[in-house]
Amino acid sequence: MKTLLTHFLICFSFWTIAQDSELELSLRQKIDKTSNDHLRVELLIELGSYYSEFSTDSLYGTAHRLINLANKLDQPCDEAMGYFYKGNYFYLKGQYSEALAFYNKSLTLRERHCDIEMVAESAVQIANVYSHTGDYDQAYLYYYQSLGIYEDLGDKESMSAAHSNLGLVDIERDQYKNALENFDKSLEYHKGSNDSVQLGNIYNNYGNLFQVQEMYDTAVVYFQMAMDIYMDINYASGLAHGYNNIGIIYYYQGLEDSCMNYFKKSLEIRKQAGDLSAISQSYNNIGILYGYQNNIDLAVIYSDSALHLAKEAGLKEEIGDAYLNLYEVYLAAKDYKNAVENLKLFADYKDSLVSAQSEQVMHDAQIKYETIKKEKEIAENQSLIDQNTAKLKRQNLIIWASLIGGILLALLCIVILNRNKVTKRQNKIIEQQKFILEQKQTEIIDSIHYAKRIQDALLKSDSHVSSHLPENSVLFIPKDIVSGDFYWVHEKEDYLYLAVADCTGHGVPGGFLTMLGSSFLNEIISASGTPKPGEILDELRDRIVSELSQTGGIGENKDGMDISLVMLNLKSHQITWAGANNPFWMIPKTMNNCLANNEGLTDSNGFIEIKANKEPIGHYWKMTPFTNHTLQLEKGDTFFLFSDGYADQFGGDKGRKFKQKNVKEILLQSKNMDLEITKKRLLAAFEDWKGDTEQIDDICFMSVRI
Questions:
Q1: 615 close to 540: Cβ distance less than 8 angstroms
Q2: What is the pLDDT of residues 411-423, one digit of tens each?
Q3: How far is CA 7 from the centre of its chain?
Q4: For residue 650, which of 198, 60, 45, 235 has the smallest C-alpha distance?
Q5: 601-602 and 495-503 as β-strands: parallel, antiparallel, unpaired?
Q6: 517/88 Cα distance (integer angstroms)
Q7: Which of 125, 95, 91, 92 is nearest to 107 (CA)?
Q8: Handedness of CA 152, 156, 159, 161 (dihedral sign)
Q9: What is the rounded distance in angstroms from the CA atom of residue 339 to the CA atom of residue 323?
Q10: Average pLDDT score over residue span 661-675
Q11: Separation CA 133–CA 524 (nearest Å)
Q12: What gap in Å lies between CA 7 and CA 187, rounded to an integer?
């Protein structure tokens, strides 16, 4: 069984704020009332700190406002804090690639403009991201960078945490001697501190170290020391790790019931905290235990859950663990085909995580660190020598200064005259370069506009879907000039096909996929009679996977699309629908409609929703045929096809998502209105909600009334 390391790191350097909704309300009111932009920046920083601790969903919008205002006031350190908060938002959501991008922006600004303590804060968080995603070489480098800064500052508590982090990376690389040295240094620097959480973390790290070396009795002693501290201060995350680690010890000692009890206690706490990496680890461990007990069905369920969650969060090591668990489970069940397949996937991930140069990288990092320390000592000694020699040179400098001053004054006049000539020439060159750049920019923008005209030509007019439908509308709002969403209509015999699709990305890259998807749909519908939507989506997925050469391999493109597709019988008004990730909505004129061959969900207000298959049009780890759903419509019934851009838009007072619930309320309030009026109400609500917040995605919303 894999040893689970407790990554109790310096994750964030937040101010200590009590969890008090009144404080949040007070800060927001002060921000709205003040006319002083500098004070508003300070209040946004404090509010962002609060949201980082207690309300993650509100953090993104606050960070965005802080970045814009700090940039306007030319306050780069406060702008860096905004990027740091955005990194926190994605880090807490388990979206590590996005978090890394914003932490790097924060680090770049802080290195240029801010105190070194803020540089260390960003460096630690970047290292934490690399550690969570299994890139231990990069984690080592950034932890060493932060350690050097904390030593210069004399910050012993932060030095203690930095050595703990380095020790955890040492364990992952089987460098147990180095890990023990780092933990000893961490404990030494912690002396005199009142930080109980950090002390518990240090003891927990000792336990991990002795556990991987199979010194179980010693490991249990340290785990229990950590648990005693966490229980005293009611530290939930620490208790979850403690339960997990003690469960692992029971596993090795053959105490299966106790092991399962502790694993499930740990999982329950981790689910409440929403820590995706820790939840995936718990699923893996429970899957291993069920496999050991020969309970194959439950072992597969938990291991599959761990794999799915790890893939969603981009957790490299947890993905590899899940593949290895599934290999062992299928092998025990004598399902050799699946066993071999999962073993191959595990080997691929193992090769990607372990670099032949990893040991050399850590060695170079340590040499660099030691070199910096020696250079610092030499500089301090040299400073004493310079102080003594400076006294002897000072008198000579005074004598020479007067003579040189006169010469420099004359030279300065010459330089100024020459510089004026040079400046005039440079300004002329700059103007020429500016003109060239403006021409290039104009050419690029013209090309993008031309691409938009091509895309528009592929889309049907949003004012006329079909002559057989008396009322319809399409709300189409690209994020950029070219859209990654598209709608598609095709009339064949007595049937009308309608679709709304959301391609990977937006702008020009998304636009390429829209043209590819639209072309494939036209080819598929033209090649056969009147295929049902599920069959069309199956064929569309096969073509996307084939044309983009997708195999599910590591590092290849994950491009594809989500789509909602309807087949309408123009005579009987019966529809068949299938969807990839995007659902189907309908508001019946009366509640007498019959739902055939599906389980539509109808709320008390008469709103019908059918869930889509939870897989995209593109390569997916488990590809199944798309499901057809059939409904009999009556005159006056209205249905909707849409992408997720509208409901996912951030905005409002707290910078949160609009959400599907609010979209449904607008549609229900407008159900007896003309669809063009409904479209205008949707557009007005969107603009009001978004305000000055950046539009995050393309929007396509089709409404059709029988």
A1: no
A2: 777 777 777 776 7
A3: 19
A4: 60
A5: unpaired
A6: 36
A7: 125
A8: negative
A9: 9
A10: 93
A11: 41
A12: 16
DSSP single-letter state for residue 627: P
**pLDDT tens readout for residues 115-148:** 999 999 999 999 999 988 888 889 989 999 999 9
CA 428 to chain centroid: 46
**Can you say how many angstroms the Cα of residue 273 is from the centroid of all Cα atoms in its chain?**
17
CA distance 642 to 631: 18
pLDDT, tens only, 312-351: 876 666 788 888 888 888 887 788 788 888 888 877 766 6
d(CA 646, CA 697): 8
Contacts 24+ apart (CB under 8 A), 109-112: 109/76, 109/77, 109/79, 109/80, 109/83, 110/77, 110/80, 112/76
| pLDDT for position 654 | 84
- Three-state DSSP class for 458? helix
Q: What's the whole-number average pLDDT of the chain?
A: 82
Q: Terminal CA-to-CA distance of the chain, rounded, Å?
A: 59
Question: At CA 599, angle to CA 596 and CA 602, rounded to 5?
Answer: 105
- Phi first, then psi: give them for residue 572, nearest 5 degrees: -90, -15
Alpha helices (runs of H) in 34-75, residue ranges in sequence order: 37-54, 59-72
- The CA-based angle 31-111-41, given to 5 degrees, is 5
Q: List the structure tokens of 529.
A: 């009679």
Q: What is the pLDDT of residue 109?
A: 94
Nearest to 197 by CA among 224, 237, 255: 237
> Pairing relation of β-strands 638-642 and 595-596?
unpaired
